[in-house]
Amino acid sequence: MKVTDIWNSRQRPTISFELFPPRSPEAAEKLHQTIDRLADLKPDFVSVTFGAGGSTREGSRQLLETLKNEKGLEVIAYFAGYGMGPEDITAVMDSYESMGVENILVVRGDLPEDGNFQPHPQSFSHAADLVAFVRPRYGFCLGVAGYPEGHIEALSKDKDIEYLKLKVDQGAEYIISNYFYDNRFFFEFLERCRAVGIDVPILPGAMPIYSVKMLEMLASLCGATITKEVRQGMAALPDGDKEALVDFGIEFAIRQCAELLDAGVPGVHIYTMDRSKSAAGIVHRLRDEGLL
Ligand SMILES: Cc1cc2nc3c(=O)[nH]c(=O)nc-3n(C[C@H](O)[C@H](O)[C@H](O)COP(=O)(O)OP(=O)(O)OC[C@H]3O[C@@H](n4cnc5c(N)ncnc54)[C@H](O)[C@@H]3O)c2cc1C
């Protein structure tokens, strides 16, 4: 089912999870347990990341296959087209189409870490160009990424919104946002989107705090602000208590999601980092509070 149809037909906001393909046999083993636990939470859909340049092509396909065909979950296949030529792009799209995938989220992706990677001469520079390429060729429900604090390379927030509008004008039907630790970033972003005529559903992404190292690493990659509230909350925890940190992250995310849901967002999309404890804690509480 197309995610836009899920939003149109569902009375309540959706809950969804992002997963990435495992990078080792041990991670694959662990991921199976995570998937079982996440599937028990009955998400409306799950999404699977794609390594730019096609680096996780097979792993992403296999994970989608497991989620869709073994677990019966609705999926969004992410597609990061950085450096890929038209033939490679259509090969990936054809394989997703034949698998019955109905939803794709198109992102540009970043330069792969492999220093020898050579972009295809006919590759696309921006996600909007990828959307324009895919849109007329396939019937997928296409989504794109949005950045409440602005994309890290953006010349300005206004320019970033201009390019987001271009992605929607080229055929994107929904937006999933990067995560943020202050809802004001999202509310202001939403306002700016609506002001320029972006009228598709905008699904906020929530990144629970899993570890200080991961928090800092992800924020440095995408430019998300680690707010004073987060830093003060973490500073008040017993030194080195990893469980207490995860629990703090769950409580923080619950408060964030509750406020977003109260404000009428179409759902919340949890970046699980292939873990289930935080997602389960958040979903159970939001359901207990009647917000989902
Ligand atoms: C929900 C979500 C899912 C993601 N999934 C993945 C994934 O699976 N795999 C992965 O590798 N990465 C993923 N990413 C990360 C993403 O690939 C990076 O953030 C990447 O740097 C930008 O991708 P984009 O699609 O937003 O790019 P674009 O929309 O192309 O924007 C990139 C930058 O270029 C600027 N820009 C856009 N269009 C133009 C133009 N025409 N002229 C000049 N400047 C322009 C924008 O302002 C921005 O600064 C995801 C991000 C999010 C939020």
Specify Rg, calculated over alpha carbons. 18 Å
Structural class: alpha/beta
CATH architectural arrangement: Alpha-Beta Barrel
Low-confidence stretches: none
| CATH class wording | Alpha Beta
Q: In CATH terms, what is the fold-level topology?
A: TIM Barrel
Amount of helix: 40-55%
**N/C terminus separation:** 20 Å
Q: If strands are numbered along the chain, what order do they take across the biggest sheet? A: 7-6-5-4-3-2-1-9-8
**Biggest β-sheet description:** 9 strands, parallel
* Record field, number of beta strands: 9
Count of structural domains: 1
Strand content: 5-15%
Enumerate the distinct ligands. flavin-adenine dinucleotide
Order of helices and strands: HEHEHEHEHEHEHEEHHHEH
Number of helices: 11
Q: What global shape is seen? A: globular
Q: What is the averaged pLDDT score?
A: 97
